[in-house]
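REVIEWER CHECKLIST
Item 1: Sequence provided? yes
Item 2: Single chain? yes
Item 3: Sequence as submitted:
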Amino acid sequence: MNIIYTAKKVNPSEKFKLNAEKALQKIDKIFPNATEAKIMLKSHNDLVDVELTVIAPNTVLRAESTSSDMNAAFEDCVDTIIRKIRKNKTKLEKKIKTGSISDIQADLYSDDEEQQFDVIRTKKVSLKPESIEEAILQMNLLDHHFYVFINSETDKVSVVYRRKNGGYGFIEPA
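Item 4: Structure as written out by the authors:
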């Protein structure tokens, strides 16, 4: 498994990297088709945010944890990923045993967290061509966390959003 480290305002020690590789071997044993692991570390106010993303063909698993101890936060992320893998495998095994193979592909790409939410409100919006800056301004005026618009430069439907750590994000179809 290829491991990519990204650190902001913190330097991971060699000991942390060795521990991370050892912990990721646990994931590799139960999820051998994982090809890449991305570890993002961010420090703020004596706390460290650790974000772990494990990538495999057709599957992306992600976990996030905050702690004063970088190793503890990383171990929490690894445990969360392992729990997600086991839960998904158990669900697939039950489907296979009951003979309902037609639902297996749907379960592979579904996430229990998404299934817990009911759509309470549906809203239709009219989209107009705007620049990214205009869209951010409109989002702030509406006091929303995201804003959907047509990018005037590319004529594609795009999204701007407010990030947790400050700043803005931009999503555009490929």
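Item 5: Key structural point noted by reviewer: The radius of gyration is 20 Å.
Item 6: Recommendation: ____
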